[in-house]
Write a structure and sequence with these properties.
The chain has 206 residues and is α/β, with parallel strands linked by helices. It has a single domain (5-198), classed as P-loop containing nucleotide triphosphate hydrolases (Rossmann fold), CATH 3.40.50.300. Helices cover 40% and strands 20% of the residues. The chain contains six helices and six strands. The protein has helices spanning 21-30, 75-78, 93-97, 99-110, 139-148, 165-205, and strands at residues 5-14, 45-52, 55-62, 83-89, 120-125, 154-156. The protein has a six-stranded mixed sheet with strand order 2-3-1-4-5-6, with helices on both faces. A hairpin with a 2-residue loop joins strand 2 and strand 3. The longest helix is centred in the C-terminal third of the chain and has 41 residues, at 165-205. The site of magnesium ion has 4 residues, from helix 1. Magnesium ion is lined by residues 21-22, 40, 63.
């Protein structure tokens, strides 16, 4: 029997328009960065395979198609997400201030069974700009926000310089995987009750 199991994890990336969501994904999956700004059109998701211990994991990373400007991402975008990546730009205060909205909107739309333990990750992007001189959100402030949300993991990244991008996505995969284990356990614990119930019902029907 093979110990290898392939696991599909759905990851969605949220945050204000222009913070670098598409660039982070492109850097991670295609090892490419483009300075040119183009609102993402039509792309649903990209995939990346990685191995974590004895597990083969396929990350299915969903990008918005620019609709984040109107905060109207359809329900299919959120459905079945295993991890939610929130991104802000360390040089733009508003993109940090709106994190609460993105966080709450995710919980409202995805409606996970346990909102307190659902895996989120925060990325503070574009730390390369101006050697950090135009930065307006301090690392301390970002970490405080993460602590206030039941200790969300935090990474400072640069999609342009490929700084911390792999590390962040590895953490994303591991966190999503850990949460998936918990779902498995709950599922198996539920089985005996279901069996008993079915037997009783079939007994009555005959
Ligand atoms: P999205 O709207 O969140 O998907 O943002 P994009 O990925 O389209 O990026 C918006 C703009 O920011 C583009 O011009 C990117 O080239 C630029 N950008 C993204 N990430 C970085 C980064 O880490 N550093 C710098 N200097 N520019 C970035
Ligand atoms: Mg985009």
């Amino acid at each position: 029997m093979s110990l290898r199991r392939r696991t599909l994890l759905k990851v969605i990336v949220l945050g204000d328009s222009g913070v670098g969501k598409t660039s982070l994904m492109n850097q991670y999956v295609h090892k490419k960065f483009s300075q040119q700004y183009k609102a993402t059109i039509g792309a649903d998701f990209v995939t990346k395979e990685l191995q974590i211990d004895d597990r083969l994991v396929t990350l299915q990373i969903w990008d918005t198609a620019g609709q984040e400007r109107f905060q109207s991402l359809g329900v299919a975008f959120y459905r079945g997400a295993d991890c939610c990546v929130l991104v802000y730009d360390v040089n733009v205060m508003k993109s940090f201030d709106t994190l609460d909205n993105w966080h709450d909107e995710f919980l409202r739309q995805a409606n996970p069974s346990d909102p307190r333990t659902f895996p989120f990750i925060l990325l503070g992007n574009k730390i390369d700009i101006d050697g950090g001189n135009s930065r307006v959100v301090s690392e301390k402030k970002a970490r405080e926000w993460c602590a206030s949300k039941d200790n969300i993991p935090y990474f400072e990244t640069s999609a342009k310089e490929d700084y911390n991008v792999d590390a962040a996505f590895l953490c994303i995969a591991k966190t999503a995987l850990a949460n998936e284990h918990e779902q498995d356990i709950r599922y198996f614990q539920g089985i005996p009750e279901t069996v008993v119930e079915t037997e009783q019902r079939s007994g009555c029907a005959c």
